[in-house]
Amino acid sequence: MSVQTMTAARQPGKWLPLVILLALVPGISSQSLRAEPAVIVNPATGLAISGFDPVAYFTDRKAEQGGADFELRSEGAVWRFRNTGNREAFRREPAAYAPRFGGYDPFELARGRPVAGHPLFWAIAGERLYLFYSAENRAAFVADPGSALALAEGRWARVERMIAR
Question: Which residue from 119, 114, 123, 95 is spatially nearest to 152, judged by alpha carbons?
């Protein structure tokens, strides 16, 4: 699986091959591929991913702070964007832009621990955004994203139950 810091413009269904690929990986069930968890939200501000624009990771190839003028409330979180176009793209297809695993670090999930990712440590793999706790975790993920994702997916249901408590 290739890891990118950017993809071309997002199109509905474009990440379907990853779903098919991951479905063939042992330990990944169709249940784990169905729904995204709620995103990590700052309880003081209500902001998802610290106010960074989730679409900008794909369009600008970097982490960009969103603005209060371009907010969208979705799934109990306030998302911020750099412009109207990014906000509308997210409104149309939030699952394509929101960080996978709700923003939890997939490398730590693979270890069975729910650790929040940081918006400045990120990667795009298989047309999905992943956030990491540290640059070291990001580097380890980028070195072998397939293995890290297989382990994270395999442990996600148990970790998600820990979070829900």
Answer: 114
**Nearest residue to 71 (alpha-carbon basis) of 99, 96, 91, 56:** 91
For the chain, which residues score pLDDT lower than 50?
A: 2, 4-35
Number of domains in the chain: 1
124 has which bridge partners?
4, 129
Q: Give the residue numbers spanning the domain of 62.
A: 3-31+39-164
Q: Cα angle at 97 between 95 and 98, to 5 degrees? A: 70
* Sequence-separated (6 or more) residues with CB below 8 Å from residue 14: 96, 127
What pLDDT was estimated at residue 165? Answer: 53
Q: What ranges in the chain are assigned the alpha helix state H? A: 16-23, 30-34, 56-59, 84-92, 94-97, 106-110, 135-143, 145-164
